[in-house]
Amino acid sequence: MTATSFEDLITLATRVAERLKERGDTVSVSESATGGLLAAALVAVPGASAYMVGGSVVYTMDARRALLSAAPPAPKGLRGATEEFAIWQATAIRDVTGTIWGLGETGASGPSGNGYGDPAGHGWCAAVGETTLTRHTLTGTEVRSANMYTFGAAALELLAEALGN
């Protein structure tokens, strides 16, 4: 699904929420380029307290150190906007909050690329729980809000896939 609005993300989050509730599973999120859209979409679904424990917006290294300091340390040399970082984020937030699932998202929303040389529209997400799934997104656009919604949709779709939905 291509998400172009917050309502689109809520539609995806509703599907994820139903599956989480059916399974009795919980989730927490650690997001970056989406700036809180993942947590907001999951919480927007009525009954969110049954499955959504919490989340963090890890937009800077300072935020990562502060919000995920209780997690096992990140591997030396790990940089943002990579598959490995998305997996670490998802694992770290899951471990810190004690949830069954962790959802991690990282990338370059735009309008320019990030400090690592990745172009705008480059993103990674990871769902970590009974399995680990990852997804790379490359939108080809520099439109910040469009990339944020696309990254959010990719992450929610990935979690739905991990949940068998």
Summarize the structure.
The protein has 165 residues and is α/β, with parallel strands linked by helices. The protein is built from five helices and five strands. A hairpin with a 3-residue loop joins strand 4 and strand 5 (132-138).
Strand and helix layout:
Layout: H1 6-23, E1 27-31, H2 37-44, E2 52-57, H3 61-67, H4 83-97, E3 101-108, E4 122-128, E5 132-138, H5 144-162
Parallel strand pairs: 1-2, 1-3
Antiparallel strand pairs: 3-4, 4-5
Helix pairs in contact: 1-2, 1-5
Mind explaining what this structure looks like?
The chain is α/β, with parallel strands linked by helices. It contains five helices and five strands, in the order αβαβααβββα. Strands 2-1-3-4-5 form a five-stranded mixed sheet, with helices on both faces. Helix 1 (6-23) packs across helix 2 (37-44) and helix 1 (6-23) packs parallel to helix 5 (144-162). It has helices at residues 6-23, 37-44, 61-67, 83-97, 144-162, and strands at 27-31, 52-57, 101-108, 122-128, 132-138. It has a single domain (6-43, 78-129, 137-162), classed as CinA-like (Maf protein, Alpha-Beta Complex). It is globular and about 40 Å long. Strand 4 and strand 5 form a beta hairpin.
CATH T-level topology: Maf protein
Radius of gyration: 14 Å
Shape: globular
Order of helices and strands: HEHEHHEEEH
The CATH class label is Alpha Beta
